[in-house]
Write a structure and sequence with these properties.
Layout: E1 6-9, H1 14-19, E2 24-34, E3 44-53, E4 59-71, E5 79-88, E6 99-102, H2 111-120, E7 126-128, H3 135-148, H4 155-165, E8 167-168, E9 173-174, E10 181-182
Parallel strand pairs: 1-5
Antiparallel strand pairs: 2-3, 2-6, 3-4, 4-5, 5-7, 7-10, 8-9
Helix pairs in contact: 3-4
């Protein structure tokens, strides 16, 4: 992979993905995974991902994942994130729930607009902790950023989605956010 933390899948579709118009943004928790490398750990979390709805049948995933190979520069033992942007025919198959947030209704809002806001604010420069955990913190930060940038327009929807990110699904129990950090 290149040195940029943003990766398009497939790479040749990057320009087309960026020009795709979006109608709403969906935040989704995925199936639970254990935290850490100890096989008997009982601590679990959900991975969260954004889906930018481009039609009734298609979306673009905006997914912040730990690289596990590019060492962090701020968090000891952590790794830098990759932002994976890919076209899908539906929300990920292991998504447990969907929390939709309405976007600015202006004509022509695109995936590129979302990526531009993310990059302008440095949100692609993120590091995960030693366990590869931190996407939920990144997701709450992105929700706030997209509201401030007026891409998302309903503050109540954003607050509800942020509250959902702070829970373990499908149980819906409270779960403290594991925080990654941003680097320069």
């Amino acid at each position: 992979m290149s040195t940029s933390p943003i990766h398009y899948i497939p790479p040749s579709r990057g320009p087309q993905i960026l020009s795709s118009k979006i109608h709403r943004i969906i935040a989704s928790p995925h199936s639970q995974v254990p935290v850490g490398t100890i096989p008997t750990t009982t601590k679990r979390t959900n991975h969260w991902c954004f889906y930018l709805s481009t039609s009734e049948m298609t979306c673009v995933a905006l997914d912040c994942q730990p690289s596990h190979t590019v060492p962090s520069s701020v968090l000891v033992g952590g790794s830098k994130a990759y932002i994976i942007i890919s076209e899908l025919s539906a929300v990920g198959p292991d998504a447990l729930l969907e929390f939709a947030a309405e976007v600015d209704g202006r004509d022509g809002l695109t995936v590129g607009d979302v990526v531009d806001v993310m990059v302008r604010d440095g949100r692609e420069k993120y590091e995960f902790d030693t366990d590869g955990v931190g996407c939920r913190f990144w997701a709450t930060e992105m929700l706030e950023l997209l509201l401030r940038a007026r891409i998302l327009v309903d503050g109540q929807q954003v607050e509800r989605a942020k509250g959902m990110v702070k829970r373990l699904w499908p149980e819906g129990t409270d779960l403290t956010l594991d925080r990654g950090v941003y680097y320069q």
